[in-house]
Design goal:
Elements lengths: L20 H11 L3 E6 L2 E7 H7 L21 H8 L18 E2 L4 H10 L4 E4 L5 E5 L1 H12 L2
Parallel strand pairs: 3-4
Antiparallel strand pairs: 1-2, 4-5
């Protein structure tokens, strides 16, 4: 059995790489999701995550591999956050590192999809032959489908 039999997550439409981070954040909050697919000219380009936007609200010294591990000395930092949040409308989705996830197609076997979902923390894109996004596959959707087919 392949992914053709699995209903995909209803997702908001793809955002473009030119979408502002503020607009992407509003879409995430309105739709109750933590990520949005990014498409360039209709073709899959990656995934922008709410954590990327949260990171934009932190001081640069607190981002990255060798960053500060503790910001308690700053206090509540609301003025810093307010300053950085004013930049969100002018920063574009393309300016954050988009998650480069493995892609699936409708002919992907269910066991392969389960393995890839197990290895990645995000829902995975299902693309058609032209690399256009058909939808996103989550662990929850796949598990519900597998359990229903197993008769449990």
């Amino acid at each position: 059995m392949t992914l053709r039999a699995v209903p995909l997550l209803p997702q908001p439409a793809c955002v473009s790489p030119d979408t502002s981070l503020m607009d992407a954040l509003h879409l995430m909050l309105e739709n109750g999701v933590n990520h949005l697919p990014v498409c360039n000219g209709g073709a899959w380009a990656g995934l922008v995550d709410i954590n990327d936007i949260l990171g934009e609200l932190l001081p640069v010294s607190a981002r990255g591999e060798h960053a500060l591990q503790d910001l308690r000395f700053v206090g509540d930092g609301i003025s810093l956050i307010a300053t950085y949040s004013k930049e969100l409308p002018t920063k574009q989705v393309r300016e954050v590192e988009l998650l480069n996830l493995p892609t699936l197609d409708e002919d992907t076997p269910l066991l392969e999809a389960a393995l890839l979902l197990h290895r990645h923390a995000k829902p995975l894109p299902v693309l058609d032959a032209d690399r256009k996004l058909k939808g996103m596959l989550s662990r929850r959707i796949l598990l519900a489908h597998l359990i229903s087919k197993a008769g449990s």
